[in-house]
Specification:
The chain is of the alpha+beta class. It is built from three helices and two strands, in the order ααββα. 62% of the residues lie in helices and 16% in strands.
């Protein structure tokens, strides 16, 4: 009985210890490189999930998305008010 409890404790302690993760190092290096290239990374909510997703974009991509969103908003407001351009 004592040996089985000791074995379980040993396994739990071994499971809790961690070693440096190579993926974390690569992720940090990737983020550093992204900063140099004018990237911006954000965590975005995924519809239907509590998990978030990391999304990195360049300044040019963000600018294009903003223009597209502004145009969509403008056209939807114009069509809702009945003031569509002729």
């Amino acid at each position: 009985m004592k040996t089985s409890v000791l074995f379980i404790l040993l396994v739990l302690i071994a499971a809790c210890s961690s070693t440096p993760n190579k993926a974390d190092d690569e992720s940090a290096a990737g983020q550093h490189a992204a900063i140099k290239k004018n990237y911006k990374c954000d965590m975005e909510a995924v519809t239907g999930s509590k998990l978030k997703r990391k999304r990195c974009t360049t300044a040019e991509q963000r600018q294009r998305e903003k223009k597209r969103a502004d145009e969509l908003l403008r056209t939807s407001v114009l069509s809702a008010t009945g003031m569509e351009q002729q």
